[in-house]
Design brief:
Layout (H helix, E strand, L loop, with lengths): L4 E5 L5 H13 L9 E7 L3 H12 L20 H16 L3 E2 L18 E4 L16 E7 L2 H8 L9 E3 L6
Parallel strand pairs: 1-2, 1-6, 2-5, 4-5
Antiparallel strand pairs: 3-4
Helix pairs in contact: 1-2
Length: 172
């Protein structure tokens, strides 16, 4: 089952909870999870706070040997999968995205299954990282003005596996 699973963070979300859980959702199992978070839309009122916290949380993910107790994220299943993520990231950067992690691990290089978690901002739906399945440790974060824009962007995908909305208001 393919997916490009979106999340929407509203201004009333419990920010520390949303940040920790969305990072887990994006990077668990090196992002190789059928219902993993691949794109995040954040209401403009809390966008800067969310991005700052999400980047800080992502710095806690340690790429390494899965047998090492300090490792929180191991390699991808195959080098070609990691290279696909590198290509998505490179395309996004060419189109104006900002990378916040910048491959902090020396093993993160072409042909290696090791790929560092990456957070991209200044992304849009002209970039494959926001449209095509990544199935790896990369997430695009996009600012939205409100519910209507967020829902339209979340639905701008041929995939439909899972989605999440982060708010304290269950009725909303």
């Amino acid at each position: 089952l393919g997916g490009k699973d979106p999340a929407y963070v509203l201004p009333d979300a419990k920010m520390d909870h949303a940040i920790a859980n969305l990072a887990e959702g994006a990077f668990y199992n090196s992002g190789q999870c059928c219902c993993g978070v691949e794109r995040i839309y954040v209401h403009e009122q809390v966008y800067d706070e969310f991005v700052e916290g999400f980047v800080a949380e992502t710095r806690n993910w340690v790429l390494g040997d899965p047998l090492d107790a300090a490792t929180t994220m191991g390699p991808m299943a195959q080098p070609r999968f990691a290279d696909f993520i590198r290509e998505q990231k490179a395309e996004a950067l060419r189109k104006g995205a900002t990378a916040h992690m910048n491959a902090r691990d020396g093993r993160d290089k072409a042909g290696s299954p090791y790929i560092s978690a990456e957070v991209l901002t200044n992304v849009d739906h002209q970039m494959s990282v926001m449209r095509e399945e990544s199935f790896g440790p990369v997430v695009g974060i996009m600012k939205v003005r409100g519910d209507e824009e967020a829902v339209a962007l979340m639905n701008d995908s041929p995939y439909g596996l899972t989605a999440s909305i982060w708010t304290r208001d269950i009725d909303h």
